[in-house]
Amino acid sequence: MRLTIRHDPIEVGEYIGQYIAKRINDFAPTPERPFVLGLPTGSSPIPTYRTLIRLVKEGKLSFQNVITFNMDEYVGLAEDHPESYHSFMFRELFSKVNIPPENVHILDGNAKDLITECNTYEEKIKAYGGIELFLGGIGEDGHIAFNEPGSSLKSRTRIKTLAYDTILANARFFNNDITAVPHMALTVGVQTVLDSKEVVIVVTGQRKALALSKAIEEGVNHLWTLSALQTHPWALIVADEDATLELRVKTVKYFKSIEKVQEEVEAMQNKLKGLESVKGDVVAAEAASVGIASA
Ligand SMILES: N[C@@H]1[C@@H](O)[C@H](O)[C@@H](COP(=O)(O)O)O[C@@H]1O
Questions:
Q1: Ligand 1 pocket, 166 CB below 6 A?
Q2: Which of 72, 4, 6, 18 is CA-nearest to residue 40?
Q3: What angle do CA 83, 87, 211 make, to 5 degrees?
Q4: Which of 71, 126, 169, 293 could bond to 145 as cystine, CB 3.0-4.6 Å?
């Protein structure tokens, strides 16, 4: 697992937005081979979504061949309620990028048969060959998606009762009226997230500091479900300075030093690539001068 630290939520959003755009562009998705992206809601990913929207507007990124699967949705909240995750995603991202509506998948919290809805969701993900990159946030109690403390780390998409802390935390979106916050949700499971090829987690703000330390400085534990990420082969957490407040100085220094080394290695690789392409040009020019046609 890597931890990258940026100054504030805006810098975190810029970093993750650029990172995702690069992954999509390097993948070069086509209609036959789309890029499958998992997405979260919440306030934390908003700066990332703003970066993605800007990159699309600048012509540096396209969602034409991107398929999305959202993490979760409330049960029993009308789809057009301003706080439903359907409304959130449309407002914060989908209405502002060139994603075909049929490429978007969000759990239906009003489905007649919620269990079938969850099982079908898992099958749809599988049918696309799995998720390439899952972007996620965390709750203050360390939950990922709506996998509240005590969730099985092997869990899959299912119905979950929300923890009281989560209901309280989300009341800010419902005029601070906790009775208005749905008490149940459909959510992808911890294992659904772990099954994706790559996981990127955004953690910003002091509110998340304890959860971050529990997730990365202690063992894998179902009481802090994000900690399951320690078992993932390709995981990245991007945090702002405030979110690191509960981490040991040693942990922060360690991950910062790793990032520095990584940057040096990348700079060296780019330099070598540059040298190789210059070498390639020289060879091609020499070949042309002695009449060898290039293949
Ligand atoms: N189900 C969502 C999570 O996916 C999200 O990570 C969390 C944090 O939200 P915020 O980013 O607003 O703190 O909120 C909800 O619980």
A1: yes
A2: 72
A3: 55
A4: 71
Reported as a single tens digit per residue, the pLDDT across 73-128 is 999 999 999 999 999 999 999 999 999 999 999 999 999 999 999 999 999 999 99
* CA-closest residue to ligand 1 atom 4: 145
Tokens for 17, please give them.
């937005």
**Which residues are part of the catalytic machinery?**
72, 141, 143, 148
Question: Which of ligand 1's atoms lies nearest the C-alpha of 45?
Answer: 11
**Closest listed residue to residue 4, CA positions, set 202, 174, 226, 215:** 202
Q: Best mutation site among 12, 44, 88 for ligand 1, i.e. most ligand atoms within 8 A of its Cβ? A: 44
CA nearest to 138, candidates 37, 229, 270? 229
ipTM of predicted complex: 0.96
Domain locations in the chain as residue ranges: 2-247, 260-295
Structure tokens at 84: 């439903």
Q: What is the pLDDT of residues 259-285, one digit of tens each?
A: 999 889 989 988 888 887 777 776 666
Q: Is 138 in the pocket of ligand 1 (CB under 6 A)?
A: yes
Classify 133 in phi/psi space as left (phi over 0), alpha (psi -120 to 50) or beta. beta
Residue 186 pairs in a beta bridge with 73, 159
Alpha helices by DSSP H, listed for 128-248, are: 164-170, 190-194, 209-217
Q: Where do we find the tokens 């934390």? A: 44
pTM for the full predicted model: 0.91
2-247, CATH topology level = Rossmann fold (3.40.50)
Q: Residue 107: CB within 6 Å of ligand 1?
A: no
pLDDT at 287: 64
Ligand 1 centre distance from Cα of residue 91 (Å):
16
